[in-house]
Design a protein that fits this description.
alpha+beta, three-stranded mixed β-sheet, two-stranded antiparallel ribbon, 3 helices, 11% strand, globular
């Protein structure tokens, strides 16, 4: 259990100091905060990547918003993932039934902005096939 230490009188306008001593709670808070920061940083990296590659208005949205993680890409939905686990079906299920192409852009551990071109992008087979047909590949029959 974390230890909470109050410095000075507790009340309106008083200073309160919270001290986490080598506890599971303190470690969890630090880990949680670093994961949130990594997620925000990853959204920014992905938005910059798209801004350099044909979507000049691409911007990260930050955490806690439903829908796309990168705005400024009309008609597309980008889910940005920086988590340690590998759960592509869960990521894609978040947008089941979405009427526009969507995918998850996943940042592997140990990868930074310099290697973004090697990060995996995961999408459903239906949207993948549709995009290939839009690019002129195949017969154009996408089964949708």
């Amino acid at each position: 259990m974390p230890l909470v230490v109050f410095a000075g009188p507790v009340g309106a306008g008083s200073a309160v100091a919270v001290v986490w001593l080598a506890s599971v709670g303190g470690a969890a808070m630090t880990t949680n905060r670093s994961r949130i920061d990594r997620g925000k940083q990853t959204q920014l990296i992905v938005a910059r990547y798209y801004a350099r590659n044909g979507w000049p208005y691409a911007e990260p949205v930050g955490s806690g918003r439903n829908g796309t993680d990168v705005t400024g890409m009309p008609g597309l939905l980008v889910e940005v993932k920086a988590e340690a686990g590998w759960r592509p079906t869960t990521w894609l299920r978040q947008h089941d039934g979405c009427p526009v192409p969507y995918w998850a852009f996943q940042r592997p551990n140990g990868y930074g902005e310099a290697t973004i071109g090697n990060w995996p992008v995961i999408m459903t087979a239906d949207w993948h096939t549709w995009l290939l047909h839009q690019a002129g590949f195949g017969t154009g029959e996408d089964g949708r």
